[in-house]
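Archive entry: two folds, one per protein. Generate the first.
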Amino acid sequence: MRRILNTIICILILCIAPAMQGKDFVIVIDPGHGGKDAGALGMRTNEKSINLKVALKLKKLLEKEMDDVNVHMTRDTDQFIKLQKRADFANRKHADIFISIHANSISSKSPAHRRINGASVYTLGLDRSNTNLSVAMRENEVMKLEPDYSTTYEGFDPSSTESYIAFEMMQHKNMDQSIALAEAVQNQLVRTAGRKNNGVRQAPFWVLVRTSMPSILVELDFICNPTMESFMASESGSTKLATAICNGVKRYRSYSSSQPADKPRQQKGRTIKTDTNTQQVTDTQPIPSEETAVSDNNGSESVITYKIQFLTSPRPIKQGDSRFKGLKPVDHYSDGGIIKYTYGAYRSLKEANSKLKTIKKKFPDAFVIKTSNGKRIK
């Protein structure tokens, strides 16, 4: 009898184990627009329909090709969902990544209205370029379809340039991961879906502001271009687009899961299209441990110096520039094609952290790094 019971228990464990393991990587897909909000209009279809078609295919592909995922959608039918509720849904699901899917468009008055094409992937950020800001304004405009939207969105006016000034001080704690995800997806939109490369960009989309995980907004292509509209609306085109995003997610997942939890992600060269030139740092780096020296390849020791990183830029900034907010003198180093600016040089972590409190009043996302011989130690 005992042998029979043990056999039954073993069978139950084998059956239950896979369920207990669960699907531990949560993805939320957000098909933009829906219901009374058609989004951008094409010659024969609309944005909301394209977004949903690609999103549904993406969900199936992710579930088929990734064993450890749990995929949720903010909508899986033609229904209107408030922007805030989309972000709230992702937060409630404790998503690991958030992907909002859209189709781009430009004014019919533009000479390029029927010729413009290309895919781009956006992460959160302030960009004063007219192109990126106008895209964000168009996507954020949907909140005006909501009753009493001014109260829901705390007085934010999606059509007022002044409202976006507040975004300048806003930072996203998952910026590095968001950019890594955006780069992976953008690369696949070009390689797999054959889209023109319009690059990884930054813009103040409300749906990205309110999410608490790495988040991207994908502009598949331009629906105002009849050729691109036909591609996105077709079965083969929508499948290629969904496959491209899926491949990008898989590459991001594979790379991010291979990084030790206590080790920051090593950044390769990255290009973010922006006219702002600078971006306050958002690296979520662990505070370096207290060390006084490290050994190089020859066994000799080098002195550790602690510095406070507070700003990054794709191009050099002159000493005394207003973007330094009075900090001087400042130093810099290059990492993956990005220039990163630092303040101070301290022999102890305690001393650096003490000064960090003051710097954070001007740059809330500043953090301490450690260097040796002028080079960052990661």
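Generate the second and append.
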Amino acid sequence: MAIHIGTALRIFSGILALLLCLPAFGQGAEAIISRDTPPDPAAIQLRAVATGFHRPIYATHAGDGSGRFFVLEQSGKIWILEDGARTTVPFLDVSALISPSALSQRYSEQGLLGLAFHPEYASNGTFFIYYTDHGGGTVVARYQVMPQQPYLADPGSGQILFSLNQPYANHNGGHIDFGPDGYLYIALGDGGSANDPLGAGQNRGMLLGTLLRLDVDSAFPYAIPADNPFVDDAAARDEIWAYGLRNVWRFSFDRATGDIYLADVGQNQWEEVNFQPAESRGGENYGWNVYEANTIFAGGSAPNHVAPFFAYRHALGCSVTGGYVYRGSAIPELQAAYLFGDYCTGRIWAAWRDSSLTWQTVELMKTNMAISSFGEDETGEVYVIDYVGAVYRFEPPA
């Protein structure tokens, strides 16, 4: 029996798509890692789920089965959203510890910037925050939830695990998250000012301009994972997992595959998004300041340079905000698409790999938001944080 050529191609494409599925990280299901069509903007909307925040800058979940959503304010407070309602008192308030600039009305890149819950939070009640202190230095601290009070953290339980002086007030990085390997990853900017005056991006002897990977369970304040890429290099810091970064503003792990996406804020002309596959053993050099995205910036040598999979000129925006690969169930149209945006213009893009594993990107929508972050809840649904004061969720049309 003859098969029409179009039918044969569809069958082949379907088989190839199945072959490109991988086991979900830590799950029994299979993860779709490619798609051949862009998401349809008509099948997606953003709906406000909470308002009235003061400079919200991040949101995440505790992974404890509660379904609660935690929203950070740059000025030092963490609030809980539950069933669309905000608690009347903050989960934690560290406003007395953070840089005074974050408490003012002027622009600042300092303050409470990151939150990560321990993978065993449901049993140990441990979480971590990233903030800049009164002197502008970076601090990562461990905290505990109050015994028998799941809606309140113990403000006196803070223990500083990591601190680093910052030479300038900007480029503080600020994102922290646990990887599928159970280690804590920390994004540090290049120290600030402009053009990387310290040469931090290509200096593995410095922690600035890097992504760190720490074991926070085996020792206090932390231990170095034995398989970190530079543990046998006397010229490099053992904590470093990847380097050549200017100022990563949000990275994320694809919850289904373990791949890492890193959005790195650019300098003069380009914003970029980088990718690290789950099978990587670390050590990637993302190029700053020899490169800005794919173009030569300062010039020189950038050994083992890994180029971004997507970059856009400042005609489309001025500060990239990293997001998440959509793994929820409410919007099948977004499955396997990485969602990210721009703080300045409110643009939101979707990026994905097609069946040949070639990167594709499309502008999904143009909003009026100052996109300070994205968030992912316990079920894999994705949110957008508007710095003006609201939290929105991607949903199907009403």
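Annotation attached to the second fold: Residues 140 and 162 are 5 Å apart (CA to CA). The longest helix spans residues 5-19.
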